[in-house]
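Newbie here. four chains, one complex. Structure please?
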Amino acid sequence: MRNLKRVTRADVAKEAGVTETIVSYVINNNRYVDKEKRLSVEKAIKKLHYHPNFAARALKGKKTDHILVVADDIMSDHFGKIISEMEKIAYDRNCFISLCSSRNDEQFINLVYEHFFDGILIGSITLSEENIQRLVDTGIPIVLLENRDYSMITGIYGKIDTGIYTGARQCVKALYEKGRRNLLYVDRMDTESGQPVHIDYRYNGFFDQLKEYNIKHNISQVVYGYKSEDELRRKLFQYIKDEQKVPDGIMCFTDDVACMVMEIVKDMGYHIPLDISIIGFNNSKIGRYTSPTLSSVEIPRGEIGKSAMKILTELIDHKEDVISPIVEKLKTRLVIRESI
Amino acid sequence: MRNLKRVTRADVAKEAGVTETIVSYVINNNRYVDKEKRLSVEKAIKKLHYHPNFAARALKGKKTDHILVVADDIMSDHFGKIISEMEKIAYDRNCFISLCSSRNDEQFINLVYEHFFDGILIGSITLSEENIQRLVDTGIPIVLLENRDYSMITGIYGKIDTGIYTGARQCVKALYEKGRRNLLYVDRMDTESGQPVHIDYRYNGFFDQLKEYNIKHNISQVVYGYKSEDELRRKLFQYIKDEQKVPDGIMCFTDDVACMVMEIVKDMGYHIPLDISIIGFNNSKIGRYTSPTLSSVEIPRGEIGKSAMKILTELIDHKEDVISPIVEKLKTRLVIRESI
DNA sequence: CTGAAAGCGCTTACAG
DNA sequence: CTGAAAGCGCTTACAG
């Protein structure tokens, strides 16, 4: 199947005129090696373009130079940016990034575990706490994107507070200051999972801030569980019918959701932002081009990618002396455009 | 480092009360095994959640269940959709997708080669033909997204004609039929590579169709090599100044580029589409929300993902009896919206 | 029909 | 200071 013969340690040893053992110790740099031998090994490695066979190393418990990213929506603009940032850093260490949409079953956990990733970044609200705990328990270095409460997870891991809780509160605050009192939160498009909506930190931030302002806060103020734009449209109509009044401020799960909401609301004949203010999350490129342009909570995606790699590296290299969890706090920023 | 003991073949053998050899033959299904033994092995595998250690298998030349995607812009909407489609199919085969931005050096080729991917999808115009040939020569199953001419590549591989050549011609046709005669093509934002612009099939389609109509076709009708929105703005100004006339139709490398162009053109005081018609590529979500909404060449991304997996699977499983190259032809579709 | 054994390319404890 | 050797978890040719 493989046509080209791979260069092995034996080839390097022969080329350098040393034993294979010496080659190994040069590569791993964990034993004194005669300076001259070391030099000739290094020369041979360069000449032959040798890379240690990573499968063989994995078998001996060494690193595989593969990091996995598990997310609900790996194709989104949001993860795209995070992953591409990680990939840049990873490549400099000869490391690859793998991707997987999250599945919430035990088979999935096993599959991931058996694939010898050096570390895993999880950015998923689909994956249950129980299964995340299982993954942490395997001992693989793990970093969680803290878009929900993970304080129950025990063991050694890292987490990145992406700041969306505060971001959601900022949203409500901005809407409140525009005189909006009748707020609505439109949750993500629910593909299938049917996870309860209230585990996401946007939800909590939204309600906590409403409570602080002592304005209407009722579970009915959340639109969720829709599977298409049409269904969202129907749910919004229904909401207005039930409540007998039109919301004057809408916070949306992402900018994509906000775009759909804007279209629907405009179709209904309302003016944005005169009648209704709208804010999305992620500050995607799309928001600069909508009409009106979209206000959005900017999540520091580049920072997330960097932090993730930083924490993973620390866990991978120094797991034994880590005080867990390693927490990194990031800050969101509300980008104000015309929609509010 | 790894806390949990992995379940090995030996564990399964013990549980099932058979030799390890038997377990292997059951897993690989390549030798007769006593029915009863087979059943008890299967039972043990289920019970213990056993997965063969993929590193050990890789070492023996078996599949690694890892496919690599190499692209210029892995974070784009476009690749996001392709990759997510591939991932769905891959997951059903317990296979992971890895990602890598393309680098055009020999070190990169080596790195990729040494990582034991079962197959590689290349969607990059940055990677030189020479390096692609190198990769094909390693014997790893490879599928090329044919956004440029790959007819010089020899050996066994697959390619997917994404249809952008025809798509570009459709663009020009649509613009021509709107009475546009003064056309411009805005190439991709050039991050650094500085690859000549004319290897991309959009470019060729654009000029071939201009020639067919026998209207102005000059190398100056391409804006390229800009590294930021500002630089694009300057280049567009410069173009108009040099040509002493405003283009009445602009074809853009992607919808993202088209969005920038639209903003610039609107800032200049021109009306879209009265003064200038604009078309992008990819039919990204963004085009539905711009003002005016954006016409775009839809590239069948889901199909690309499916085809890529199909061809890769074929190359991986039956490489010996493949007649190369395996070619899959896909069709683009021009989505007309307000911008034209 | 099936088991014992060689070997994939490494790492590193062990023994000099 | 350094080499020969065991062993990681598999696959499969070889020998019954």
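Moderator note: Residues 6, 8-10, 20-21, 24-25, 27-28, 30-31, 52-53, 55-62 of chain A lie near DNA strand C (CB under 10 Å from a C1'). Chain A has three domains: 9-52, 66-162+301-330, 164-298. Thread marked as resolved.
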